[in-house]
Write a structure and sequence with these properties.
Elements lengths: L1 H15 L7 H4 L6 H20 L2 H26 L7 H12 L7 H19 L9 H20 L1 H4 L5 E2 L4 E2 L2 E2 L3 H23 L2 H11 L1 H6 L4 H27 L1 E2 L6 H14 L4 H24 L2 H25 L3 H15 L5
Antiparallel strand pairs: 1-4, 2-3
Helix pairs in contact: 3-9, 4-9, 4-10, 4-12, 4-13, 4-14, 5-6, 5-7, 5-12, 6-12, 9-12, 10-12, 13-14, 14-15
């Protein structure tokens, strides 16, 4: 009886348990079990059908969160993956948005890619100081880039439109005008899904292990044979590319680009997504974007439901409540939402056993 029970348990584990890996290819797979693949296909189908299930405003919020998660993933690769701090993420989003604003209509997808490419080139240049400095000094260097980009956005009127910004027509794909969030959702998926799959695969490959080695101890990584120059510059370029693409998509959602969309506070907001979500994971980028972008919308709805006589008084307390929620969450869950999800997942994996 014991032998039969052991064989059945081992067979179940090999077929369904996600923790069992027999080859490196399985270790790098997105879903290495039948249940995992089924969940992945169901999730992708849900994303495709989401515009049919939600109304206009929820779909707008969902599109905004998806774009924010894509940009947050870029910062996750840099901060959580390679351990390089950045306070200029919003500047890269602005570069992508302004570049995309010059190729609109049927050329909008090309403009989004162009914005990502220009942002990646600037990220490569910004990554050069990371070869000499790190920590708070690197943060100050990226902060200087944020201020410089903000100045350029406001003064280079021939390209950016100055303080007034630029107004964009809705994007077009194959003759279809994407003038609503429901239609734009599919353009967001067209860019977001490949980039999310690439980001997840990157963290599981040799390059991703090099990122984590540099994050943990760059001196030890160099002794182990990791090329610090290539690894750090690649991390900055990838992070900036993700931000540039997200900025171009955000411009298509807003149908306008102004310097007020990309201030320092947005860079800090995305850094909060990294911390709250859980640094260095793709799931952390998604969960962090949900928390940081969705909670203010919920608070806005709550304040609006109380009536106009209370809205003015409570609007100032909205940011206080939001900041308090972040601090409370970090105190109770230092590993972020990914740590909380990991504990819940492990509990149901071992249920009904107590360990």
């Amino acid at each position: 009886m014991f032998a039969l029970s052991k064989r059945l348990t081992d067979a179940f584990s090999l077929r369904f348990a996600r923790a069992v890996r027999e080859t490196y290819r399985e270790d790098e797979a997105y879903a290495s079990t039948p249940l995992g693949r089924l969940a992945l296909y169901a999730f992708l189908l849900l994303l495709l059908l989401l515009p049919l299930l939600l109304g206009p405003y929820p779909m707008y919020v969902a599109t905004l969160v998806a774009i924010g998660a894509l940009s947050a993933l870029g910062l996750h690769l840099l901060v959580g993956g390679a351990g390089q701090i950045s306070l200029g993420h919003a500047a890269f989003m602005g570069v992508g948005a302004y570049a995309a604003s010059h190729l609109t209509g049927p050329l909008a997808p090309l403009g989004i890619l162009l914005g990502g490419g220009i942002a990646a080139f600037l990220g490569l240049l910004l990554g050069l100081p990371s070869l000499r400095i790190k920590g708070v000094y690197l943060a100050i260097a990226t902060l200087a880039f944020q201020f410089l980009a903000d100045y350029v956005f406001k003064t280079w009127e021939a390209v950016t439109g100055g303080i007034r910004g630029r107004t964009l027509p809705p994007p077009e794909v194959l003759g279809l005008v994407l003038d609503t969030p429901e239609k734009l959702w599919y353009l967001v998926l067209l860019f977001a899904l490949p980039l999310f799959f690439y980001g997840k695969r990157l963290l599981m490959t040799r390059a991703g292990r090099a990122f984590r080695a540099v994050r943990d101890n760059d001196l030890s990584a160099r002794v182990a044979g990791v090329d610090l120059t290539r690894t750090k510059l690649l991390a900055f370029a990838l992070s900036a590319f993700y931000a540039g693409v997200a900025g171009g998509l955000l411009a298509g959602l807003y149908k306008a680009v102004t310097p007020e969309y990309f201030p320092l506070s947005v860079s800090i907001q995305y850094l909060a997504m990294v911390i709250v979500g859980g640094a260095g994971t793709v799931l952390g980028a998604v969960l962090g974007a949900f928390f940081v972008l969705l909670i203010p919308e919920v608070l806005n709805s709550f304040v609006g439901a109380l009536g106009p006589e209370y809205a003015a008084q409570l609007a100032a307390w909205r940011n206080v409540v939001f900041g308090g929620l972040i601090l409370l969450f970090l105190v109770l869950e230092p590993l972020g939402l990914v740590g909380l999800w990991g504990r819940v997942r492990d509990y149901f994996r071992t249920w009904p056993l107590p360990y």
